[in-house]
């Protein structure tokens, strides 16, 4: 697939093209309930070609978790001006007050 790890990335992907190309294209929802909360996980695309879908997903969220690739060169690219930092600006515009950003290095 050309990716260092795609182990769990496909779990919420439903479209055939998402599985074939190993990228999230459309938002996916996964709902569950705890004793205190109704929780909906929204998986939104990270690719800039699908930014409209990112906006759709982010505009529905109360909080967000942004997972960046943390391999050599990948993390630097993701936090560049044209990288995932653009997503953090969208979250602020939509009124999302809580954003957790973390990196994942699949080689470790």
Automatic annotation (TrEMBL):
Q: Does the keyword Nucleotide-binding apply?
A: yes
GTP-binding in keyword set: yes
Q: Which residues form the Tr-type G domain?
A: 1-108
PROSITE patterns listed in its UniProt record: G_TR_2 (PS51722)
The record's InterPro entries line, in alphabetical order, gives: P-loop_NTPase (IPR027417), T_Tr_GTP-bd_dom (IPR000795), TRAFAC_GTPase_members (IPR050100)
Keywords attached to this entry = GTP-binding, Nucleotide-binding
According to its UniProt record, what is one Pfam family this protein matches?
Answer: GTP_EFTU
Q: Name one GO molecular function term.
A: GTPase activity
Protein name, as recorded: Tr-type G domain-containing protein
Phylogenetic placement of the source organism = Eukaryota, Metazoa, Chordata, Craniata, Vertebrata
